[in-house]
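FAQ

Q: What does a record look like?
A: Structure on top, sequence underneath. For example:
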């Protein structure tokens, strides 16, 4: 790198030279929800694929149905508004027990059985992720957190030691309060924050092969989407509904430095880094 380029990079640390980008290590961050955790075959496929990765890796998981089941057994009411959970004080206790406890530790144990040096964490551990309690507007979501900071140094220290963090969907506010936080948002935030240190690959694993133009037709899988393609598909009405916010968030992550975003089903994870991969890659 020449003197002028080096000076420019020192003034603007987020401007990375092509040579530096090539030298950066790949970091795989994937997020799984209940559709994977609660399904034995999908769960097994995800575990085996994660164990096979030979680069730094982070697994962010959601809560699945277990949180609702435990809440019912404890007599804690489950409240949902437009598909979003209201987190009361009692429900927060359930979330901490189930998400940060049972589900997280079971994933860690399953990965340990596969030789993965996994460590279960929440955003409160090592001050990894801070958030603020969501302001009350039309709806009071209770103890739900909106992310404000990701501690890059702490994440780097874990990853540099070969540790694979398994992140539960809980953050904290720095004042002693835990907060229930959307796992998709946590995965995106961590991928974005670490994109200056790694080539971050963000993978959302769910129960479809990827972006489908027709859910009944396997041949309608869209293998790659760039911004212009996305706008055209929206204009044509070929992508709509719940897929829109997922793709909007994916392109937002790319704009903030993430190398690529992938949407796929658990069975495809085994071929994630091969030419045989079947899923949707979202590219800049």
């Amino acid at each position: 790198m020449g003197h002028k380029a080096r000076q420019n990079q020192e003034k603007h640390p987020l401007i990375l030279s092509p040579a530096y980008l090539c030298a950066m290590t790949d970091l795989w961050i994937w997020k799984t929800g209940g559709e994977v955790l609660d399904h034995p075959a999908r769960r097994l496929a995800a575990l085996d694929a994660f164990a096979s990765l030979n680069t730094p890796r982070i697994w962010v998981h959601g809560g699945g149905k277990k949180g609702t089941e435990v809440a019912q057994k404890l007599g804690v009411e489950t409240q949902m508004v437009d598909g979003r959970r209201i987190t009361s004080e009692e429900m927060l206790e359930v979330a901490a027990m189930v998400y940060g406890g049972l589900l997280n530790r079971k994933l860690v144990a399953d990965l340990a059985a596969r030789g993965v040096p996994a460590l279960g964490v929440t955003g409160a551990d090592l001050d990894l992720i801070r958030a603020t309690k969501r302001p009350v507007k039309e709806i009071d979501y209770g103890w739900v957190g909106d992310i404000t900071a990701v501690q890059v140094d702490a994440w780097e220290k874990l990853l540099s030691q070969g540790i694979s963090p398994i992140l539960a969907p809980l953050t904290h506010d720095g004042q002693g309060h835990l907060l229930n936080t959307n796992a998709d948002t946590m995965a995106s935030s961590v991928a974005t924050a670490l994109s200056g240190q790694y080539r971050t690959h963000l993978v959302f694993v769910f129960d479809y092969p990827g972006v489908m133009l027709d859910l009944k037709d396997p041949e309608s899988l869209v293998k790659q989407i760039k911004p212009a393609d996305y706008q055209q598909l929206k204009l044509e009405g070929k992508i709509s509904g719940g897929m829109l916010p997922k793709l909007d968030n994916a392109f937002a992550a790319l704009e903030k430095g993430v190398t690529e975003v992938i949407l796929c089903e658990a069975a495809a994870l085994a071929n994630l880094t091969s030419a045989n991969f079947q899923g949707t890659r979202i590219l800049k």
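Q: Is there anything notable about this one?
A: The longest strand covers residues 198-206.
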